[in-house]
TrEMBL record:
GO molecular function, one term: acyltransferase activity
Record CDD domains: NAT_SF
Top EC class for this record: transferase
PANTHER family, per the entry: SLL0310 PROTEIN
Residue ranges occupied by any N-acetyltransferase domain in the UniProt entry: 1-137
Coiled coil (residue ranges): none
EC number: 2.3.1.-
Protein name as it appears in the record: GNAT family N-acetyltransferase
InterPro entries xref list: Acyl/Acetyltrans_Enzymes, Acyl_CoA_acyltransferase, GNAT_dom, YitH/HolE_GNAT
Amino acid sequence: MEARDLARVLDWAAEEGWNPGHGDAAAFHAADPGGFFLAEEDGAPVAAISVVNHGADFAFLGLYLCRPSHRGLGIGFDLWTHALARAGGRTVGLDGVPAQQENYARSGFVLAGGTARSGGQVQGAVHEAVRSARPAELPAFVAAEGMASGVVKPDYLGRWLRGDDTRVTLVAEAPLGFGFATVRQCREGAKIGPLLAETVETAEALIRHAATLYPGPVFLDVPERSAPLAELCGRLGLAEGFRTARMYRGRPVIQTADIFAVTSLELG
Protein backbone atom coordinates (compact mmCIF):
# COMPACT_ATOMS: atom_id res chain seq x y z
CA MET A 1 0.00 0.00 0.00
CA GLU A 2 0.84 3.63 -0.39
CA ALA A 3 -0.29 6.09 2.27
CA ARG A 4 -3.49 6.93 0.39
CA ASP A 5 -4.37 3.22 0.20
CA LEU A 6 -3.93 2.91 3.94
CA ALA A 7 -6.39 5.75 4.52
CA ARG A 8 -8.97 3.79 2.50
CA VAL A 9 -8.32 0.61 4.46
CA LEU A 10 -8.85 2.50 7.71
CA ASP A 11 -12.26 3.47 6.35
CA TRP A 12 -12.93 -0.26 6.00
CA ALA A 13 -11.80 -0.74 9.60
CA ALA A 14 -14.23 1.98 10.70
CA GLU A 15 -17.05 0.10 8.96
CA GLU A 16 -16.10 -2.99 11.01
CA GLY A 17 -16.34 -1.02 14.28
CA TRP A 18 -12.61 -0.55 15.02
CA ASN A 19 -12.97 3.26 15.27
CA PRO A 20 -9.55 4.34 13.95
CA GLY A 21 -8.09 7.76 14.68
CA HIS A 22 -8.24 10.58 12.16
CA GLY A 23 -4.45 10.78 11.97
CA ASP A 24 -3.67 7.08 12.20
CA ALA A 25 -2.79 6.50 8.54
CA ALA A 26 0.26 8.77 8.63
CA ALA A 27 1.49 7.38 11.96
CA PHE A 28 0.98 3.77 10.89
CA HIS A 29 2.70 4.23 7.53
CA ALA A 30 5.72 5.89 9.16
CA ALA A 31 6.24 2.78 11.31
CA ASP A 32 7.21 0.65 8.30
CA PRO A 33 6.18 1.91 4.84
CA GLY A 34 6.74 -1.50 3.26
CA GLY A 35 4.60 -3.38 5.76
CA PHE A 36 1.11 -2.79 4.32
CA PHE A 37 -0.43 -4.90 1.57
CA LEU A 38 -3.52 -4.97 -0.66
CA ALA A 39 -5.11 -7.66 -2.78
CA GLU A 40 -6.82 -6.35 -5.89
CA GLU A 41 -9.31 -7.71 -8.37
CA ASP A 42 -9.50 -5.95 -11.72
CA GLY A 43 -7.59 -3.05 -10.22
CA ALA A 44 -9.95 -2.60 -7.27
CA PRO A 45 -8.77 -3.35 -3.69
CA VAL A 46 -10.67 -6.19 -2.04
CA ALA A 47 -8.52 -7.23 0.95
CA ALA A 48 -5.79 -5.79 3.16
CA ILE A 49 -3.26 -6.75 5.82
CA SER A 50 -0.24 -5.28 7.58
CA VAL A 51 2.86 -7.03 8.87
CA VAL A 52 4.96 -4.24 10.34
CA ASN A 53 8.56 -5.03 11.23
CA HIS A 54 9.21 -3.06 14.42
CA GLY A 55 12.81 -4.26 14.65
CA ALA A 56 15.15 -7.14 13.93
CA ASP A 57 13.28 -9.56 16.19
CA PHE A 58 9.61 -8.52 16.27
CA ALA A 59 6.76 -7.81 13.86
CA PHE A 60 3.06 -7.16 14.36
CA LEU A 61 0.18 -8.29 12.16
CA GLY A 62 -2.99 -6.24 11.85
CA LEU A 63 -5.54 -4.61 9.57
CA TYR A 64 -6.51 -8.03 8.26
CA LEU A 65 -9.67 -7.15 6.34
CA CYS A 66 -11.54 -8.57 3.38
CA ARG A 67 -14.49 -6.88 1.73
CA PRO A 68 -17.74 -8.77 2.39
CA SER A 69 -18.22 -9.44 -1.33
CA HIS A 70 -14.92 -11.35 -1.52
CA ARG A 71 -14.93 -13.41 1.67
CA GLY A 72 -14.70 -17.18 1.51
CA LEU A 73 -12.75 -17.20 -1.75
CA GLY A 74 -9.25 -17.74 -0.37
CA ILE A 75 -8.12 -14.20 -1.18
CA GLY A 76 -7.56 -13.26 2.46
CA PHE A 77 -5.49 -16.34 3.20
CA ASP A 78 -3.30 -15.83 0.14
CA LEU A 79 -2.67 -12.26 1.26
CA TRP A 80 -1.97 -13.48 4.82
CA THR A 81 0.64 -15.92 3.53
CA HIS A 82 2.28 -13.31 1.31
CA ALA A 83 2.50 -10.70 4.08
CA LEU A 84 3.71 -13.07 6.81
CA ALA A 85 6.69 -14.02 4.66
CA ARG A 86 7.98 -10.46 5.10
CA ALA A 87 8.43 -11.04 8.84
CA GLY A 88 11.05 -13.70 8.17
CA GLY A 89 12.20 -15.31 11.41
CA ARG A 90 10.84 -12.55 13.64
CA THR A 91 8.35 -13.20 16.40
CA VAL A 92 4.96 -11.98 15.14
CA GLY A 93 2.20 -10.70 17.41
CA LEU A 94 -1.44 -9.93 16.68
CA ASP A 95 -4.63 -8.81 18.40
CA GLY A 96 -7.39 -10.76 16.67
CA VAL A 97 -11.05 -11.41 17.26
CA PRO A 98 -11.47 -14.50 19.46
CA ALA A 99 -13.63 -16.20 16.81
CA GLN A 100 -10.56 -16.45 14.55
CA GLN A 101 -8.23 -18.01 17.14
CA GLU A 102 -8.41 -21.46 15.59
CA ASN A 103 -7.54 -20.10 12.16
CA TYR A 104 -4.57 -18.18 13.56
CA ALA A 105 -3.44 -21.27 15.47
CA ARG A 106 -3.21 -23.20 12.19
CA SER A 107 -0.56 -20.66 11.14
CA GLY A 108 1.47 -21.27 14.29
CA PHE A 109 0.05 -18.55 16.55
CA VAL A 110 -0.37 -19.32 20.26
CA LEU A 111 -2.74 -17.55 22.64
CA ALA A 112 -0.93 -15.41 25.23
CA GLY A 113 -3.75 -13.36 26.78
CA GLY A 114 -6.34 -10.85 25.73
CA THR A 115 -7.26 -7.20 25.56
CA ALA A 116 -10.59 -5.54 26.34
CA ARG A 117 -11.76 -2.22 24.93
CA SER A 118 -13.36 -0.02 27.58
CA GLY A 119 -15.27 3.08 26.56
CA GLY A 120 -17.80 5.68 27.59
CA GLN A 121 -18.24 9.20 28.83
CA VAL A 122 -15.77 10.31 31.48
CA GLN A 123 -16.17 13.36 33.67
CA GLY A 124 -13.25 15.39 32.41
CA ALA A 125 -11.09 17.46 34.73
CA VAL A 126 -8.04 19.54 33.93
CA HIS A 127 -5.24 18.61 36.34
CA GLU A 128 -2.62 21.23 37.19
CA ALA A 129 0.10 18.56 37.22
CA VAL A 130 -0.71 17.30 33.68
CA ARG A 131 0.66 19.08 30.61
CA SER A 132 1.52 18.45 26.97
CA ALA A 133 4.77 16.56 26.42
CA ARG A 134 7.79 18.39 25.05
CA PRO A 135 9.56 17.03 21.95
CA ALA A 136 12.77 16.40 23.90
CA GLU A 137 10.87 14.06 26.25
CA LEU A 138 9.49 11.74 23.58
CA PRO A 139 12.52 9.41 23.20
CA ALA A 140 12.32 8.60 26.91
CA PHE A 141 8.61 7.79 26.52
CA VAL A 142 9.37 5.52 23.55
CA ALA A 143 11.87 3.66 25.74
CA ALA A 144 9.46 3.48 28.69
CA GLU A 145 6.66 2.10 26.52
CA GLY A 146 9.07 -0.49 25.13
CA MET A 147 10.06 -1.63 28.61
CA ALA A 148 6.39 -1.85 29.62
CA SER A 149 5.13 -3.65 26.51
CA GLY A 150 8.19 -5.82 26.00
CA VAL A 151 9.20 -4.39 22.61
CA VAL A 152 10.82 -1.05 21.78
CA LYS A 153 9.19 0.37 18.63
CA PRO A 154 11.06 3.60 17.82
CA ASP A 155 9.76 4.31 14.30
CA TYR A 156 6.14 3.65 15.28
CA LEU A 157 6.09 5.41 18.66
CA GLY A 158 8.45 8.16 17.52
CA ARG A 159 5.80 9.36 15.08
CA TRP A 160 2.76 8.36 17.16
CA LEU A 161 3.67 10.40 20.25
CA ARG A 162 4.23 13.64 18.32
CA GLY A 163 1.38 16.09 18.68
CA ASP A 164 -0.63 17.37 15.71
CA ASP A 165 -4.15 18.57 14.99
CA THR A 166 -5.65 15.21 15.96
CA ARG A 167 -3.55 14.05 18.92
CA VAL A 168 -1.58 15.16 21.96
CA THR A 169 0.70 13.32 24.36
CA LEU A 170 0.18 14.23 28.00
CA VAL A 171 2.73 13.88 30.77
CA ALA A 172 2.24 13.87 34.54
CA GLU A 173 4.45 15.96 36.81
CA ALA A 174 4.94 16.08 40.58
CA PRO A 175 3.12 15.62 42.88
CA LEU A 176 1.72 12.90 40.61
CA GLY A 177 3.87 9.86 39.90
CA PHE A 178 5.45 9.14 36.53
CA GLY A 179 3.02 8.74 33.67
CA PHE A 180 2.17 9.71 30.12
CA ALA A 181 -0.61 9.06 27.64
CA THR A 182 -1.43 9.90 24.05
CA VAL A 183 -5.04 10.86 23.29
CA ARG A 184 -6.18 11.05 19.68
CA GLN A 185 -9.40 12.09 18.03
CA CYS A 186 -11.22 9.18 16.39
CA ARG A 187 -14.26 8.64 14.21
CA GLU A 188 -16.18 8.47 17.49
CA GLY A 189 -14.79 10.30 20.51
CA ALA A 190 -11.13 9.74 21.34
CA LYS A 191 -8.80 6.87 22.20
CA ILE A 192 -6.13 6.93 24.87
CA GLY A 193 -3.08 4.84 24.11
CA PRO A 194 -0.43 4.23 24.98
CA LEU A 195 -1.01 4.98 28.62
CA LEU A 196 1.67 4.14 31.15
CA ALA A 197 1.42 5.23 34.78
CA GLU A 198 3.24 4.58 38.02
CA THR A 199 0.05 4.75 40.12
CA VAL A 200 -3.69 4.47 39.61
CA GLU A 201 -4.03 8.08 40.78
CA THR A 202 -1.68 9.19 37.99
CA ALA A 203 -3.62 7.17 35.43
CA GLU A 204 -6.90 8.70 36.57
CA ALA A 205 -5.50 12.24 36.30
CA LEU A 206 -4.27 11.53 32.77
CA ILE A 207 -7.59 10.00 31.67
CA ARG A 208 -9.72 12.77 33.15
CA HIS A 209 -7.47 15.44 31.64
CA ALA A 210 -7.54 13.67 28.26
CA ALA A 211 -11.35 13.61 28.39
CA THR A 212 -11.40 17.42 28.28
CA LEU A 213 -9.55 17.63 24.95
CA TYR A 214 -12.00 16.10 22.47
CA PRO A 215 -15.81 15.76 22.54
CA GLY A 216 -17.53 12.43 22.99
CA PRO A 217 -16.61 9.19 24.73
CA VAL A 218 -13.10 7.96 25.44
CA PHE A 219 -11.78 4.45 24.78
CA LEU A 220 -8.82 2.46 26.10
CA ASP A 221 -7.55 -0.97 25.03
CA VAL A 222 -6.60 -2.65 28.30
CA PRO A 223 -4.59 -5.91 28.43
CA GLU A 224 -5.60 -8.61 30.92
CA ARG A 225 -2.32 -8.04 32.76
CA SER A 226 -3.40 -4.47 33.55
CA ALA A 227 -6.01 -5.33 36.19
CA PRO A 228 -5.59 -2.05 38.15
CA LEU A 229 -6.30 -0.05 34.99
CA ALA A 230 -9.33 -2.21 34.18
CA GLU A 231 -10.67 -1.59 37.69
CA LEU A 232 -10.10 2.15 37.28
CA CYS A 233 -11.97 2.14 33.98
CA GLY A 234 -14.91 0.53 35.74
CA ARG A 235 -14.89 3.16 38.49
CA LEU A 236 -14.83 5.90 35.87
CA GLY A 237 -17.95 4.47 34.27
CA LEU A 238 -16.33 2.98 31.19
CA ALA A 239 -18.06 -0.14 29.92
CA GLU A 240 -16.24 -3.11 28.47
CA GLY A 241 -16.88 -3.56 24.77
CA PHE A 242 -15.30 -6.15 22.54
CA ARG A 243 -12.31 -8.32 23.41
CA THR A 244 -9.35 -9.40 21.32
CA ALA A 245 -7.00 -12.35 21.66
CA ARG A 246 -3.26 -11.54 21.87
CA MET A 247 -1.37 -14.29 20.06
CA TYR A 248 2.24 -14.82 19.04
CA ARG A 249 4.09 -16.90 16.49
CA GLY A 250 7.51 -17.32 18.05
CA ARG A 251 8.71 -16.20 21.46
CA PRO A 252 5.88 -14.53 23.46
CA VAL A 253 6.46 -10.93 24.54
CA ILE A 254 6.04 -10.25 28.24
CA GLN A 255 4.31 -7.07 29.39
CA THR A 256 5.86 -5.80 32.62
CA ALA A 257 3.62 -2.86 33.57
CA ASP A 258 0.42 -3.22 35.61
CA ILE A 259 -1.07 0.15 34.60
CA PHE A 260 -0.76 0.13 30.82
CA ALA A 261 -3.02 0.58 27.79
CA VAL A 262 -1.78 -0.50 24.38
CA THR A 263 -1.04 2.02 21.66
CA SER A 264 -3.28 0.41 19.03
CA LEU A 265 -4.74 -2.99 18.24
CA GLU A 266 -3.54 -2.59 14.65
CA LEU A 267 0.22 -2.19 15.25
CA GLY A 268 0.61 -3.15 18.91
